[in-house]
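Hey Z.,

So I finally got round to the adenosine-5'-diphosphate thing we talked about over coffee. Here's the setup:
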Amino acid sequence: MSKIRILSDALASQVAAGEVVERPASVIRELVQNSLDAGARQITVEVQQAGSALIRVSDDGSGMNREDALMCMERHATSKIRTKEDLEAIASFGFRGEALPSIASVSRFRLVTREHEAMVGTEVEIHGGKLLAVREQGCSAGTMIEARALFFNVPARRKFLRSEATEYGHIEQQFVVHALAHPTVAWTLLRDGAVMHHFPASTHGPKERIASWVGAELAGRLLEVPRLEHEGIAVHGFIGGIGVSRSTREMQVTFLNGRPVESPSINYGLREGFQDALMKGQHAVAFLFLQMDPAGYDINVHPAKREVRFREGRSVQQAVARAVAEALRRSQVLPTGIQSRPMRPGVVAAEPSAQVPASAVAEVASASVTAPEIGASPAVSTSQGLVGRADDFLVAEPVLLRPPVALAPSEPAMPLMPEVAAASLGRAVLQGNAALEAQSLRVLGVIHRLFVVLESPRGLVLMDQHAAHERVNFEKMNRALAQGAVATQRLLMPLTLQVTTRDALILEENLETLARLGVELEPFGKGVFKVEALPAFLKVDDPLQWLDQVVEELQSLAGGRGSGTALRLAQESIAKTVCRRSVKANDRLAEAEIAALLRDLFACELPHCCPHGRPTLIEMPMRELEKRFGRLVS
Ligand code: ADP
Ligand code: MG
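And the result:
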């Protein structure tokens, strides 16, 4: 007797169910996608005990007649594709005809459905894959599908269900992502009888729903990604602005023609678009909607259709990267550093930048220019303004944590800066960043030799001079690299750098890149390097100590993979490392240096964060100050 046998239909369905139905949330996904495919305008999802007792999805979509209601329970029964060509360009969520029989094989399943024009509907009951009953049933138009006691007949799978909180979390996630992608449909989620979410149908796009999901605070800090088309791929959506990120990918949802998908191409595109605006180990916040011809991808590569394979992955990556980079460039907003204040994603129309020769820029920079009087701020003489503002600022933060006496600045003599109209500097040198052109910043002083205090038309701005320098040096270095090599300063007396064997390995492996970045080292025996040249922009007291820090950081970038095997690192991460601490700690900047730093910073592509993603500028808007001083009751 032969050993190979064809599985019974019931058993085959259970096997398939293992792939399609991992947990209650996957049932929700399949059912709401069916409802969307049926053209529903209203979808209601109900669960009891996080779906293990009951899952019910009702819609007002097309409904089915008696014949189809029976037919749809067969494996590979689908109304959505017919030919091989259809499979190559799938526009619907479903196409495999697998979900309903799979779900019905592992639950007590009930389907009630009626077509809009029909007088009476149909009810089908199936328990563990066995058809129990088919009867006529009076019901509203559309379809209601119930799955009770999920996995009641597959104890091994039931055991794998996690806590109610976890399972419900997945359910909510599935519900929300589909609701985000389909704002014109009204959605309701009920948990054990209580309404958890209700999204009325909206024609205003997904913003409101995103806001109600992520909360007003984060929603206010989202930037709109204006629609951009690249090689037939349209991208739009919302992303977290600079300084907004998460340690998980939870707030990263990408949709392809309305279907939530994951794809390395999209992820790479996001990374690339954010460039260095993300801190190491942090993930972007992003809600991106991609639209393209379904012939350009294959969704049939994952049992749960979570993943997608693009024909032109590179184009998708580029489209996403460009859209994201454009949104970041357009955002004129400074990180506020104040959680309660939403960032304004407004966009100022780009004014063509005036072509001013570099010498003129330098002139503007060194001259003391008085900024035009600024709207909301009271007119004060420089010194009064300075003292008053400094106090404001000191009081503004953790006032309750300090005894009142500590509020008096211990070092009252803050170096006075002549006012610098950064706006006019900006206009002269700015290309990409129209936003900053419109904004004049006035230098008020420096506190603790670290933070430059500025006045903006909207309030108070602080600049971290180190972070700003890092950004400026990093972009200078990148420009120099694009043109050939970074300017170096040769050392008259070469220094000797001594490192451990492990550190020597990583240096040797990256010597070439380091040299291109201006750090010229020559191996000189076991663990010893001769330092021949350093980048010209480097301004540190102790180059050897700085090099030690560079090596340490390279090691941490190599991330433990070191153990004996040398590792070549990406030029970009080495460049960031080289720029780190490339200025003296607590260097007292002369006023002309501050002006130059501001000018250089605003000429950067991404002026608002250092290459490691930390903010360079923080704004405290007048509103916030007024609120804190009790002038404004909010
Ligand atoms: P697929 O979605 O891959 O076609 P399913 O097993 O999910 O496979 O569904 C089988 C068929 O049942 C669908 O092709 C569709 O014709 C019908 N169907 C399922 N759910 C609904 C619904 N909510 N409204 C109308 N028809 C439905
Ligand atoms: Mg389906």
